[in-house]
Amino acid sequence: MRTTATLIKLLFKTWIRSKVSLFFGLAFPIMLLLVFGTIFGGASPPNYRLYVRNLDVDSSGSPGVLSEAFIQALNNSVFEVVPLKPEDPTPRSTGFAAVRVLTIPKGFTSNLLNMTIANRVDITADTIRRMVEMAGAQIPEQARANITASMQAFTAFKQTIPAERKTLVLEGSPDDRVLQPIEGIINVIASKFELALLNASSAVEVKTTYSQARQMRTVDYYLPGYTAAFIMTNGLIGVSSLVSDMKRSGVIKLLASTPVSKTSWIVSLVVVQTFAALLLTAVMLAVGWAVFRITALPDFFSLSVILLGTLAFTGFGVLIGGVLREAEAVTAVGNTLSFPMMFLSGAFWPMELMPPFLQEVAKFVPLYYFHVALRETLLVGSLATAILPTAVVAVMALLGISLAVLTTKWRDF
Amino acid sequence: MEAIVVEELTKKYGELTAVDRVSFKVSEGEVFSLLGPNGAGKTTTVEILECLRTPTSGDAFIKGLSVRDSSIVRRIKKIIGVLPQEFNAVGNLTVYENVELAAAAKQASDLKQVLEDLGLWEVRGRMFSKLSGGLKRRVGIAMALVGSPEIVFLDEPTTGLDPEARRETWLYIRRLKKQGSTVVLTTHYMEEAEKLSDRVAIIVKGRIAAEGEVKSLIARHGGKTKLLFEELDSRAAEMLRERGFEVEQRPSGRVVVRVGSDSEMFEVLTALRSMGYHVYPEIKQAGLEDVFLSVIGSKLSNTGELT
Ligand SMILES: Nc1ncnc2c1ncn2[C@@H]1O[C@H](COP(=O)(O)OP(=O)(O)O)[C@@H](O)[C@H]1O
Ligand SMILES: [Mg+2]
Fold it and tell me: Is the predicted ipTM greater than 0.85, yes or no?
């Protein structure tokens, strides 16, 4: 047991120190995810950061009550509000995230208050006028004249309220495709705000509900596809060359001359590859979450699929490294198996994009079942559709490990 | 007790008989060398002893345990240490980690001791791939020695090393013997076999051509001591011949006189002096080279080829 633990530790060190395995095992898949996820992944990740420059401050620099409340309302909506001081310059776009600045004009609070009072006066006067009209002859002539006179005084009072429309200025890039929707959202929030000030409630409300069927974005497709593909190359290219190197250098011979069993050796290889696969999955999910807001967490089933896939391709890697003598042959076979599989299996692009003929071919590619099983369990969370591909991967795992055990020679090399 | 007993060991690779009815014994605490050219069957023989190859027929016993009996292979593996031919440790592990690998495999606890003994403690943190050839080989030897095996197999431990590194390796092998280990060495270097071994088996084409203690092999097959005279005229040569000495006049002008003992050598020199020849010959004692030449009929080059 301790022997195997040390073996695992040392094999892991060689893995983590090998530039090739780190590149193919981590860096390359992440680069692919970022590049293709961004190019084909549809809209850039939703970013509703909103800079707000509040000019509505009093002489001491403290913001007006209503502008502050309005900013609060914005922040409680979809926006992530970043306050700007009046004298702050407009932030420059870094090229990745669009910059949008909302400027709240000076006098926003007092103006809004005045506007609200003016509106209330209007509404009140209007209401009274209508009621008087409806009452008609029931109200004595004299009283009606009085009311009309006081209404005139009322309206005259309204004229004295210094209310003018103030404009919120939204500043953004002409390339920003979501600038208009954002203006719409701000408008809605402003209206609700005004309604609230009038103590009125809105008659129309929108409630969004999510349908059961999740729409798959292209990145959702790439993430499990790349993860599966590179777990495969880790095995077919990484493990095979490691095994063949150690065979040629005599390390396996030396190990075979000690009491260590062949099983410990294969178990160690599998454990290290499982570590590597989990690490890759974790990093891919982390990048997927950070950049594309993919919020998948592996559960028991997706972890099982990862383990089975790792077993299968580690097994095949051990087989290739064990059977072939020349280092060049090992690399050649590893590459010629891996690369066509990546492209033919549909791991790299949605199957629907492939010609029907190739879609059929994909079903004969082992990687196909692995990435489909991983996608179904990891992102779709659908066991029903995962069961068949998972079964195929399980059979591959059994086959791979059996072949690895059969072809790893601890004697008569 | 015998550490190793080999009986009529034969290994065939298809049509080729790589090891042909080989028998020998190695006593405990002895350094035993298999000396022979490339392809003689040295590696095949030791790998059978290391339980890494299955013999076609015959048997070998390590401390009385048969290498054919798969149920006791583990017991054999627990008492042997192996340096495979042309061994290279793992390139991107350090010296320490590589020896740790072997120590883990053998469940040994003398890792630090071995590193110190072989002068590797100071360089334990260096990556194997960055080491010089001599240090690399020493790491391999450390991996063989960790766990203090009773029997150590070193397959061509100095091939490819520069003279200095080779001498260093010899030092460690001598120390091993002092510590009481049994060492089986394969080599194609005459000098190495002669200097290090108690007993040597000369193996060619899978067969043992001669076997025994180095001294007795030389006495039996090596022939006489040679006195090499750079310049000696025909008259002197003639005179020595008349007195019954074995004289050979080479086309280069050199004269070689073969003597069977030190007193005979003394006689040659006094005879020459009495005739006024004050010459000092180069004395070449017979060695394994001569044994090899007389037993096999050809020489063994530095690269391990028969010439
Ligand atoms: N695995 C093998 N398969 C076939 N022939 C082999 C194998 N290993 C060695 N041989 C052949 O057996 C002979 C003896 O080889 P070997 O034991 O390596 O000799 P040495 O170690 O003395 O150089 C050589 O002719 C070699 O080509
Ligand atoms: Mg050899």
Answer: yes
